[in-house]
Amino acid sequence: MTDRRTGTGPGRLLVAVYGVLALAATARGIYQVATKLGEAPVAYLLSLGAGLVYVVATVALATDRRRLAWWAVSVEMLGVLVVGVLSLVDVGDFPDETVWSAFGQGYGYVPLVLPFLGLLWLWRTGRSADVPPAPDDLG
């Protein structure tokens, strides 16, 4: 039985999207923490934390480190769902946006969709490539 690597085929596009988001979120978080942490500490530290999660997910997916990828993408999903809800319910803690605020609205909802795609890809590539296809319903 052979497993497909996570960073090959369509996984390359997934790794690229993770890489862009990792760069954007980490750079934004570093800038916000370095220049205006006192204005919205929760939001800015969450932005930096999200960026670091995206960095870990990118590296793990690109290098086929499945356990680390499962962990990082799961943390990402939990983060975007929890922060998404909290940013809409408790606006006081989120006077400025994070990557995960409003479920990633500021990033075109990519942060909401990406962990689902990441987990799906991890599940699909973890399955054996030698499994015969299911019989079709044509005949």
Mean model confidence by pLDDT? 88
Strand content: under 5%
Elements, N to C (H/E)? HHHH
Low-confidence stretches: none
Oligomer: single chain
Helix content: 55-70%
Number of helices: 4
What is the distance, rounded to the nearest whole angstrom, between the alpha carbons of the first and last residues?
29 Å
Q: How would you sum up this structure, described in words?
A:
The protein is mainly alpha-helical. Helices cover 65% and strands 0% of the residues. It contains four helices and no strands. The chain has helices at residues 10-36, 41-62, 66-89, 110-126. Helix 1 (10-36) packs across helix 4 (110-126) and helix 3 runs antiparallel to helix 4 (110-126). The longest helix is centred in the first third of the chain and has 27 residues, at 10-36. The mean pLDDT is 88.
Q: Which terms summarize this structure?
A:
single chain, 139 residues, mainly alpha
Nutshell version of this structure?
With 139 residues, the chain is mainly alpha-helical.
Topology:
Layout: H1 10-36, H2 41-62, H3 66-89, H4 110-126
